[in-house]
Automatic annotation (TrEMBL):
It holds the Pfam family AI-2E_transport. InterPro entries: AI-2E-like. It comes from Sphingobacterium alkalisoli. It is a multi-pass membrane protein. This is AI-2E family transporter.
């Protein structure tokens, strides 16, 4: 009888955990528009806390210090965006050459298919024309959707800016709120321990996010110098894009290299340059994987590759690209909590790499 009672108790506990997980992911998915700006703002605020504290020590009031810090960061991001747009415009000036190359490749493709699969060029072109007409019908929707997407992005940037400033201003109040909750429900003895955990989370998150941006900066310089020496046109554009995509663990470094390799395949008559670019990106990826990331960010969030990839895919399912970027530091924050709460230490050990 006691064994059956124990079995039902265990099953009931498992069901409760599963129900909680389903509820959490349901909320995360359907509250994406509300939660993503808060998560982004929280991470940026943690990154900017040391700068804000420095300004406050110089006698600047907290509200003004927070505003200056966030606005300078926004100016830096806007500068990068401006450079990317300017380089993209320069890339557009060579579209005529790119179009000629694509036409040549299509003609070669038509000839290959006609020779090996007995499909006439007329039938191939009829099929392509049908596809083009279908794409043209949806082009208007894409253009109108792009306009609303730009408005949506600008609106989110404004929201994130306001959230970040307010989080920096009210960071002490938020911290005291957490400590008051712990004092009420766990007792005074846990307040000091909780304060240590909160400070640890803030420090690690700041170092991790700062380390990610430092890696992006270093990679953009390496990519720019390397692609310029190799002779790739618009090297600055591809260097910045490849470095930014590298923010997404494991997938980003490969995707950035593929973009440049495909561009060189289309724009050059020889395979020599694409091969050299492939070798260059492979070497830089090894440098990033074994030198840059482990020494700059790897020591801040020690996560095992298994759970990093799982969280990466899960973040993509729940929040898209934003989730793939945000879920890694969020998992790192959870690991800090797990490592400092005795009943949760096994979970911290499971997802860790040390």
């Amino acid at each position: 009888m006691n064994a059956d009672k124990t079995k039902f108790t265990v099953l009931g506990g498992i069901n409760q955990v599963l129900l909680l997980l389903v509820l959490i992911f349901f909320i995360l998915h359907f509250a994406k528009a509300f939660l993503v700006p808060i998560a982004v703002s929280g991470l940026i605020a943690m990154l900017l806390v040391p700068v804000c504290v420095k300004l406050e020590k110089w006698g600047i009031k907290r509200a003004l210090a927070a505003s200056i810090t966030v606005l300078l960061t926004l100016l830096l991001i806007s500068t990068v965006v401006y450079v990317l747009i300017n380089e993209l415009i320069n890339l557009g000036t060579g579209m005529a050459v790119l179009g000629d190359r694509l036409n040549t490749m299509l003609d070669n493709g038509h000839a290959f298919i006609s020779e090996h699969f007995n499909v006439s060029k007329v039938k191939q072109k009829e099929y392509l024309q049908r596809q083009v007409s279908e794409w043209s019908d949806s082009a208007g929707k894409v253009v109108s959707g792009a306009f609303f997407s730009i408005v949506y992005i600008l609106g989110n940037m404004l929201i994130v800016t306001v959230y970040t400033i307010l989080i920096l201003i009210y960071r002490s109040r938020i911290k005291n709120f957490v400590l008051q909750l712990v004092n009420k429900y766990a007792g005074t003895g846990e307040v000091a321990h909780t304060k240590f955990i909160v400070d640890e989370i803030t420090q690690i998150s700041s170092l991790y996010v700062g380390g990610v941006f430092l890696v992006v900066f270093i990679l953009s310089i390496i990519y720019f110098i390397g692609l310029t020496i190799i002779g790739v046109e618009n090297a600055l554009f591809f260097a910045i894009v490849a470095a930014l995509i590298n923010v997404i663990p494991y997938i980003g470094s490969v995707a950035g290299g593929i973009i440049v390799v495909l561009y060189t395949l289309i724009t050059r008559d020889t395979l020599t340059l694409p091969v050299i670019v492939t070798v260059f990106f492979t070497v830089v990826q090894q440098l990033d994987s074994y030198v840059l990331t482990p020494n700059i960010t790897g020591g801040k969030v020690r996560l095992g590759p298994l759970f990093t990839i799982m969280v990466l895919l899960l973040g993509g399912m729940v929040w898209g690209v934003a989730g793939m970027i945000l879920f890694i530091p969020i998992l790192g924050i959870l690991k800090v909590i797990f490592d400092n709460v005795d009943p949760l230490k096994p979970y911290g050990y499971l997802i860790g790499d040390t």
